[in-house]
Here is the input.
Amino acid sequence: MTAPPPSPAASDNLAPAVGRSPEKPCAIAPAIRTEILARLAAIEAAHEVRILYACESGSRGWGFASPDSDYDVRFLYVHPLAWYLRVRAQRDVIEQPISGDLDINGWELRKALGLLGKGNATLIEWLDSPIVYRADPVFLAALRAAARRLHRPERSFHHYLHMARGNARAYLGGERVRLKKYLYVLRPLLATCWVEQGRGPAPMRFETLVETLIDEPALRAAIAELLRCKRAVGEAEYGAPLPLLNAFIERELLRLESVTLPAKVSSDGTELDRLLFETVLRVTGEMA
Here is the structure.
């Protein structure tokens, strides 16, 4: 089913997103990009924050957007120093009402770093997004380095396996199936296999997972056809169940149930504390 695991050196890699030439399915129309950048600038002004990183998540980041897919923009932001010197805890997310097909939300830096220390797979995925709208290069390099060192494989493994199992149970049991739901099962399932094989943090792009892990020609062809349909039709498109994919999903879910990854010793937080301290001081100076 899958290719052999990589060498130890390869498993320590977290592919950079900034500077990578986006593949065609990832391309964002210039007018949409301009609007997103304007929304991010407006958020900074309204909340008196600095956005350090903003990327596309969801189906566009994964590489299988439909023509009517939303734009799921996620960002990390930091306040000036005074915000961090208050006794009472402050709100640590910025959530914008969905406007048309734009869904824009962000996490405050201290919240994000705390989640990274706990092995949050979603945040690590954002750092590998092929679509980046904003990036502070100093901060992003430091955050990616921390993500490589602090990756918790056992946490990612359980996160993805739980997601794959839950989505399969919820969406693939009927006589008619929303085609996009196969991808919402296959992506976390393959991410689970990626982590199981010791390859490091799972990449965001679905096709990277498929090209690396799937070596059965018939299965590859079925997934390629599924991707073609997903990119060509609307989000709500239904179809008959796909027996080949169902058999693969059932087989891998059953196999993975008996797999246990050893727990990695958690960090004491020193590295993340330092990143928070240095970033807040630097950005405060730049915003003064």
